[in-house]
């Protein structure tokens, strides 16, 4: 079974904390709403209480914490924490200080999933891969030569800001963008799932929105292919989870937009890990970072 580890996934909506064994099997998990914390003390106080619930015996000595912020090796202070504002400006030393009994590693929330999929999931055995999540927003993690590529400032993989057509990828292709399009077509109560329901019912207006989404998202995939040349894309998130057929549509379109010798080298799959990937990935990041320690 090996040593146990704590995985903490701090998101803009939920905080998930889990105790995992050495095989990355979840033993216990707790979830709480992120809420509007007035201070870092409130946030990490809640995390401490959740850790006490999942690991009442204090068996784990390592904690991985996934955060929705840019990250790189050597980061000293958290910046651009728009989803969890109380973290803005917090030093890494302060963050680790809330867990004096543990070895703590912090990492970007999408990066930990990219690492997990690379080591144990859909892109296992590939040296170069790209994980992309399409949910409320859009994010990604780049695995180059078997490790996360952070970039000089920790912003590598922040692909939601990529300019596609006349706006960013996130503004045009995220779940939020699809919901806005659905409301424009079908009224203020409409949702992204309703858009796809209408699409499956052969609604021409919904089909037009989906076709435009495929066109724009495939533009991004073609660009990523020619910039980073990954062996495989792992594409997940709620939009893809509920509409997995979109992957084939996107890849077929992207193949018409890359250099000829790359056309048959674009491959994409669904993630191997589901909703708990952030917690498991955070735990794996800690085990990987402190292996042998």
What's the topology here?
Elements: E1 5-10, E2 14-20, E3 26-33, H1 40-54, E4 62-67, H2 92-97, E5 103-108, H3 109-120, E6 129-134, E7 138-144, E8 147-148, E9 163-164, E10 167-168, H4 169-173, H5 175-186, H6 192-200, H7 204-228, E11 232-236, H8 238-242, H9 245-254, E12 268-269, H10 277-289
Parallel strand pairs: 1-4, 4-5, 6-11, 11-12
Antiparallel strand pairs: 1-2, 2-3, 6-7, 7-8, 9-10
Family: Belongs to the ROK (NagC/XylR) family.
Protein name: ROK family protein
Pfam families: ROK
In short:
It holds the Pfam family ROK. By secondary structure, the chain is of the alpha/beta class.
Please supply descriptive tags for the structure shown above.
293 residues, alpha/beta, Nucleotidyltransferase, domain 5, 2 domains, five-stranded mixed β-sheet, 12 strands
